[in-house]
Design brief:
The complex is a heterodimer of chains A (about 110) and B (about 120). Chain A has about 110 residues and is mostly beta strands. Helices cover about 0% and strands about 55% of the residues of chain A. Chain A contains no helices and 11 strands. In chain A, strands 2, 4, 5, 9, 10 and 11 form a 6-stranded mixed beta sheet that branches. A 5-stranded antiparallel beta sheet of chain A has the order 1-3-8-7-6, with no helix packed on it. In chain A, a hairpin with a 4-residue loop joins strand 7 and strand 8. In chain B, about 0% of the residues lie in helices and about 50% in strands. In chain B, the strands form 2 sheets. In chain B, strands 2, 4, 5, 6, 9, 10 and 11 form a 7-stranded mixed beta sheet that branches. In chain B, strands 1-3-8-7 form a 4-stranded antiparallel beta sheet, with no helix packed on it. Classes of the chains: A mainly beta (about 110), B mainly beta (about 120). Chains A and B meet through strand 4, strand 5, strand 9 and strand 10 of A and strand 5, strand 9 and strand 10 of B.
């Protein structure tokens, strides 16, 4: 089992749709959680950190369920510019700083 | 926001050349820096983790003598691809982080092409 698993995708949605990405992690020592987006041939860019209480930034909502070891990202009112690969990232410290990326979920938003 | 500068952005060179890539955190002190490689249409692959002043920790399958990492200060890490060959052609990306509860900030990446 992979340490961080994401929906395989791709997701194809029309503009204005709501789309949800799921991510699970296997190591209970995981300490911090993030969502990044990566455009083709570009570096990943931080979308948002994920907090236990859940957090929202405009059209984006992230949630964390530590008991289920599950993270989600919800995008409301999808825009064409949301088309990208969304990466779930987990930091943990089982004797040293370790960071693990999910394989990413590709999103295509179409007009 | 935190900025990481990576240089050069593009390198094209002959097989056998050694290539050095610099990664600088411009407005924060990166206690830990990561080096990644990404082949077309594939996921990011972590190559190594480096902490300032200590030896880098390499991921399984990454040759430490091939990919030399130096993290001499809290704002600078370098990756040297020694005697590069065509199979080393890839997109190399660095990131810096201040602590385990903080997000990584990525450089713009270096596209390396070995002829």
């Amino acid at each position: 089992r992979k340490e961080v698993e994401q929906d395989p995708g791709p997701f194809n949605v029309p503009e204005g749709a709501t789309v949800a990405f799921n991510c699970t992690y296997s190591n209970s020592a995981s300490q911090s959680f993030f969502w990044y987006r990566q455009d083709c041939r570009k570096e990943p860019k931080l979308l948002m950190s994920v907090y236990s209480s859940g957090n929202e930034d405009g059209r984006f909502t992230a949630q964390l369920n530590r008991a289920s070891q599950y993270i989600s990202l919800l995008i409301r009112d999808s825009k064409l510019s949301d088309s990208a690969t969304y990466l779930c990232v987990v930091n943990l410290a089982p004797g040293g700083f370790k960071t693990i990326f999910g394989a990413g979920t590709r999103l295509f938003v179409k007009a | 926001g935190a900025v990481v500068s990576q240089h050069p952005s593009r390198v094209i060179c002959k097989s056998g050349t050694s290539v050095k890539i610099e990664c600088r955190s411009l407005d924060f002190q990166a206690t830990t820096m990561f080096w990644y490689r990404q082949f077309p249409k594939q996921s990011l692959m972590l190559m190594a983790t480096s902490n300032e002043g200590s030896k880098a920790t390499y991921e399984q399958g990454v040759e430490k003598d091939k990919f030399l990492i130096n993290h001499a200060s809290l704002t600078l890490s370098t990756l040297t691809v020694t005697s590069a060959h065509p199979e080393d052609s890839s997109f190399y990306i660095c990131s810096g982080v201040t602590g385990i509860n903080q997000p990584q900030h990525f450089g713009d990446g270096t596209r390396l092409s070995i002829l």
